Amino acid sequence: MSPHAYVNDLSPGNNRVSPRALLSSSAARLSLDGDWRFRLATGLDDLTLDLGSPELDDSRWDTIAVPSCWQMIGRPDAPRYGAPAYTNIKFPFPVDPPFVPDENPTGEYRRTFELPEEFVADGRCLIRFEGVDSAFALWCNGVWIGDGKGSRLPTEFDLTHVVRPGINQVAVRVHQWSSGSYLEDQDMWWVSGIFRSVTILHRPSGGIDDVFVHADYDHEQGLGRLRIDAPAGTTLTCRELGLDRVDTAGSYDVAVDPWTAETPRLYSITVANDVEEVHLRAGFRTVEITDGQLLVNGVPILLQGVNRHEWHPLTGRTLSEETMRRDVELMKQHNINAVRTSHYPPDPRFLDLCDEYGLWVIDECDVETHGFVLNDWRNNPSDDPIWRDAYLDRIQRMVERDKNHPSVVFWSLGNEADTGANLAAMSAWALRRDPSRLIHYEGNRECDYVDVYSKMYDSLDFVEQVALRTDPPTSDPSNDARRRSLPYLLCEYAHAMGNGPGGLAEYQELFDTHPRLIGGFIWEWIDHGVVLRQDSGPNAGRLYYGYGGDFGEQVHDRNFIADGLVLPDRTPSPGLTEYAQVIAPVRITIDPAAGTIQVRSRLSFADTAHIGFRYVISDDGIEVAIGDVDVPVLAAGETATVSLPAAAVSPPRQRCERWIRLEAVLAGKTDWAPTGHRLAFGEAQLTQISVPQRPRTALPPPPVHRDSSPAGGPLTIGPATFDVRGRLVALFDHPVTLLPALWRATIDNDKYAGGQAVETVWEPLGLHRLQHRMAHLAVDDDHVSVVVRSGGAITDRMIDTTLVWTAVDDGIQLQTRFDLVGPWQGTIPRIGLQLAVPAAWDEMTWFGLGPQETYADTRSGAWTGRFTASIEQLQTPYTRPQENGQRSLVRRLELANDSEPVLRIDAEAPISVTYRPWSTDHLEAARHPVDLVPDHNNNWLHLDWAQHGVGSAACGPGVLPAHALTADQVVDAGFTVTFRSPHDH
Length: 985
Ligand code: IPT
Description:
One of its GO terms (biological process) is lactose catabolic process. This protein is mainly beta.
């Protein structure tokens, strides 16, 4: 038999120790993290034959850090060991299970370590690998020890028979591809190596190898019940609960504060005997499904979650504790209460953090066979008995490792592996081993071996049908009654790729209304960008983040890997701020007519004692009063109504738009945010000026067009100068030009099937390459009125833009009107004007929604105010450049040059504004943010009557009708703005 048989065989591993919990213990341990000798072999024909031999001279080998992913070493400037490769569903090798190609990059690792006497004095000495991707073999002191698979799962081997006090030597051979790869086809980068920690553990004889803490909570009695599975003769101590070295064989009813994600109360416990002490933290809670609802401690809960992959742009799937903590803190700061560990068990320290900070966890097993779908699921391992052991092995290793974490409420069998007997067997095993938790698996549509009806990316209509139980029945009628009795979960929805996701508020509205809906998890947490450095051009030297195809992959899935709520460097994207407000712990509704503010708690357990309330009153966006509002402490789910503050009741001194905003902020500091951190807000307009969502024009339809007759020479009307054909050339002596614009730099959601696919609708109309004709010109003493007809080559569908310029006292007014010409149908990206203004105008101040970007269906996270930002700050650097940075409902804006205002624009009714240092064409052409270079002469200002929403069509529903810009809405379309010189004010 070949010495590498394990690479291609079905065994989950050989010679391993039975799986058990990861315990913090008094027994000796030695970390093997640090430098190892390393050599990368090209494949099985290139191996070091005596790799395991202590005599092998490896002094000329490289050194590599353990843990790490070898493809990430040296990035961005000096990568040494191949490159990461991205595929979503496709296997990057022929689908010939369980075999993988001979061309199989293989990392050979060696190191020595000094073992203190105590490790060998008695008992056993183990070595534990927390994660090795994807298959590996181990030697110690020249002896073959065993092999393993299951990349994101722990593996332990017994070294007792080979180790000795003093210097010992280990060697590990790690193969990028193995039979295990068929079960690990997650939507992520293929990277390899010993990517989590390695430890040597002393297991004293008579020690405590494993502990299973059962900490239930009886909400009716307010009692916790503590039961421990531990070796006979061990004792249990929990000072706080008055338990002092009681027998672990007993069961203890104790008055406790329960654990919930909102109140993550943990109790330190010690399990001990004469030879060993292990320390754990118990959280008391009981999880159950009753009447189609998910109850924790008897209370229905709503999961407001994210799917989290483990990623860092420099280190790949190797994460520092600091990075994990950052993720958890960012989630808590943005009101997220749940994590699905898509699609594998995370670094175990992450679950400690979830216990500590409070997050509900769906712990997902390392199983995904998605690539088989591209071959009609032929030979899918999920239903093939030869793979059964491999499946069972994986669920056992996950459950055993993570069984003591109160945060884990669901075991998930895996992702996108279709359905089959092996998955059902995993479920049965988990249920037997741990009846206290629930089983999740989205692929089991019939719901005959799961506890929750889980789906992905369903439309609002479908979700509502499920909520009302009017959805179609199961395929096997005998499953229907059970499925209808289960709660429904969107384990993935709202695809956060690029600009978006839009329409979160509508989903949340459904979740908040129907008890059967227990919430959802946004896809996904982070853009998995890989750090790169731009090597030439004006941005040479700058870092950016690569995606699929940037590493020479022959097959790849482009930027589908950049679909997170945080950018690769963990900067929150506007989507995260939007989500935070949509799932805020309190809903604030202000009713100016009644003079009241209503605050409703959306919490399930905690009261609002930790939340303070403060109001801000602003006149035309300028803050005129701030103060505290006394809101009584609300129990979970309660509502209170208080009066508007007195300052809000007195009328403003002059005619203006007066708004009040009530902010809910942290009253004191928490583990995850400082005092004053904003959790939610609500706002209302106090004065009666109405703010239409879309302006209507006062201009009549354009005159029957005829060729314009050039006037005598350049025209000047007030501060505006036009060329002979009526085209704007200057405003207040600054060069400014203007043209109609219908295109936006394609967002990811515009490209895919569920959306108004650009390729089928917008491109054929040539909206990205409009040609223009001045179709009409009329001039008198203080008016210039023109009609510009614009259209794309080939088509007779065009748009007439009427522009009427009128000199007014302190500036010049522009009235616009947009009329579609020909049989238009469907959606249009935007309708408005694109102005080229001087590049020196580097700052914008606006009165409208802000501070972040907003689109028709992403307006929850922004409020009405006056905001200032540099042109740089106005851009959102999406990992793949695309339309971004729009500010909506803008009534007034001011452009400034070095903080010196140069141009003011007042809109009669609110418009949308986008300001950027490059044109839409330039933005469209860029593949990465470093491809974008500010234009030499111009900045580009879009003033839009409307823009199409963003939706979630990259992998979900498109823009909802209410947020779409469709041809039939273009009736009396147009807006009026006045350009003024700020010096006049
Ligand atoms: C779904 C996957 O579960 C997830 O891993 C990710 O790939 C996501 O799509 C898209 O980014 S599967 C999809 C075919 C619905």
